[in-house]
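Two entries, shown back to back:
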Amino acid sequence: MKAQNASAQETTGTIRVTIIKMIEQVAEEQGKTLPSLSDDAPLAGSHLDSLRIAIIVARLDDQLNLDSFTGANDIMPLITFGDFIRLHENAAA
């Protein structure tokens, strides 16, 4: 059981790092400066519009081999950066 929990935490941490790197990459490509990416930071204030968020989601789904918007995840509101992270963590679970 401990090994499963450690593996799940490692996967969660890896997903978080991958997401942060992808957001930073897309922001840099688009010439955008990002505010702090804390879990409670609103996505609306991130300088990333819906097109950029869609690019990030598509790239993450490809890179992580996920489909983030299947099942119950597709009704989850994405208000904060933490919500965005949890969407992908849940899809990987």
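entry 2 starts here
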Amino acid sequence: MTRKQKITISPAQKLEYAKLMVEENYTYKQIQTMSGACPSAVARWKRQYKLELSGHTPEGISALTLDQQRIQLIYGSLIRRFNMLKDIISNKGIYLTQFMNITKLFLTLPLLLH
């Protein structure tokens, strides 16, 4: 028995397929036939798209919608800046309480983005 050849589908294509399912009422089977993807992948795209529309930012995977892609980019930038600040603080010997206050500020920033 031979395995199905792996296909690569871009995030833009996944977004279009998800939109077809959610907005145009295409079935999983229609999208599966059009894309060549497995049923679980098609279901995952639809689920992810609906979550992103409701304001959830996916973790560990690339966002499909432009708004969520921007949030991921901003959040990644904040994490990099936080780590740089943490390194500076550890080298300068700033007190732990000051560090914790700065940490709380950075942890609340993603909440402000939503």
